[in-house]
Specification:
The chain is built from nine helices and no strands. The chain is mainly alpha-helical. It is globular.
Length: about 200
């Protein structure tokens, strides 16, 4: 959460520029405000839970209540689904986390009805989940899987540039949405990069 909060403040202006081109222009401010609230909420609630799932569940609840537009339900729903899948276990291995990421992806698709190629956060999230799962199933360490997911998310983010948006506000622009990087995919990639950074260096 600390890494993600720092990333959202670092990328706030970038996300604002990207969203100004094909959306409302508020994605940067919303994400920075949302994760700042997550950090504050965890600090106010007493000792931080030892279970990763409980932390993620609290983060998701906060994002749903604080972040405006579609981003709150989508990102918050993903964190909640991941937290629920991980449960109250104080330790989570790569395979279990991969299953949690798959549950989070399913929740995003249920809420947003988007698929890869629609120029949304799914274009970064889906390949990240696939890369994490593949690494985990091969027996890779958690950090290795997290770094693979981050690289896949960033590749998917870049691949949104030539796409025409088919979901969300950007879809109303039609062909004019082509040539712009999707802001939701960009913030998604930042979250996966934060996961990789928090999990430690590659070995």
């Amino acid at each position: 959460m600390q890494h993600t909060t720092s990333a959202m403040h670092r990328d706030r202006d970038l996300l604002t520029r990207l969203d100004s081109a094909i959306g409302d222009g508020d994605h940067g401010a919303n994400m920075a405000r949302g994760f700042t609230a997550v950090q504050a909420g965890l600090a106010r609630s007493g000792p931080v839970p030892s279970a990763p799932g409980e932390i993620l569940l609290r983060a998701g609840n906060c994002l749903v209540s604080v972040v405006g537009g579609a981003s709150g339900p989508l990102f918050g729903g993903a964190f909640r689904a991941l937290g629920e899948a991980l449960g109250s276990s104080p330790e989570v291995d790569a395979r279990r986390f991969a299953a949690g990421l798959a549950a989070a992806l399913a929740k995003i698709q249920q809420l947003g009805a988007a698929v890869p190629g629609d120029k949304t956060m799914i274009d970064a999230y889906a390949p990240a989940v696939g890369a994490f799962r593949a690494a985990a199933e091969s027996g890779a360490a958690f950090a290795t899987a997290a770094h693979a997911a981050a690289e896949a998310a960033e590749a998917g983010m870049r691949e949104t540039v030539p796409l025409q948006a088919r979901k969300g506000r950007a879809a109303y622009l039609g062909l004019r949405s082509i040539g712009h990087q999707d802001p939701g995919a960009t913030s998604t990639a930042a979250i996966f990069r934060s996961l990789a950074e928090a999990s430690g260096p590659l070995r």
